[in-house]
User: What shape does this take?
Amino acid sequence: MRSPQDELLELEQRSLRRELRWVGSEQDREILLDGRQVLNFASNDYLGLASHPEIVAAMKSAVDEWGAGSGASRLITGSMSPHRNLENTIALLKDCEAALSFSTGYAAAVATVSGLMRKGDTVILDKLAHASLIDGARLSGATVRVFPHNGLAKLERLLDSSVRESGRVLIITESVFSMDGDVALLDEIISLKKKYGALLLVDEAHGLGVYGERGLGLIEHLGCGDDVDIHMGTLGKAAGVAGGYIASSQSIIDLVVNKGRAFIYSTAPPPAQAVAATKALEILTSGEGRERTEKLWSNIEKLTSMLSVVRKLTPSSAIIPWMVGEVDAAVELSNRLLESGFFVPAIRYPTVPRGTARLRITVTANHTEADLSRLAEVLIGSEDR
Assistant: This one.
């Protein structure tokens, strides 16, 4: 019998073993990582809201009013007024009939997809869709089909066969893809969805706070909200807090409440988390939020321009993949950057396909021009080695 130690050794020999890193400071552009002060180019706190004083104050006040925990699952006594307020806020912002919040974005994906789909249905996913969406599809018992990233021709062929053979058909895509940083061909996907009468779920995890007039994501940016059946997102990235959500029709929300096991059998998120997330959405969609998004895009464009002397990069989100290829080389480069005072993680299989290991650079509104210049200098220098 293979022991856990044998499996860990195998991972280590392939440079695929991962270990927890401990942060001894608040999330910001600079963090104390394993006892070392480094510039943080790994955070999803794109707008720098994780330490926003108003959000912190809202959470502190909510603990005093509502206590530390929710005490039960949502269907028992865990549905508290802060959860309802958060969900009403999301539904209003997304212009949907209803919304539902979850403890994490992972739980939102698994509960929603596995709750809506079942044997006899078909889920069609973009190949680069997040692991949580893939897991939800597999757990549902539905037939799972995959189309190449943004591969519209294959998507249409899958739709054509699925709508004739299957019950409910659900297309799943992200708006901004988490490892490549590019965006979905959403207008074209919507056209196909309409043509074949399928449902469409769009995960705005990395679009919220980055796209849209009010920072609500790529769907808002393209003005196609009415054509998306399920709006999904997280509250732990640009919103700076924690949790996940979906916004949709009342019937879809009710179905997830009744059939989404990851929702039904989880203790409700702390009420203070919901209060803080509500405050974060208020700030994110305000004038201050727009200023932060403008600063974020200014930083994205500055860094990609600096790096363009060695590589052609097209800025499309706060995620900039620095492609390396082989796992060992990516890990070595990440370690070299760490020695120089930058935390930029190496992303390896199975998170990305074999042979596509990379550094995943994430830019935030809190980074300074000096931070960007220093990182660009080290990365450009690494090209000469």
In short: The mean pLDDT is 95. The longest helix spans residues 287-307.
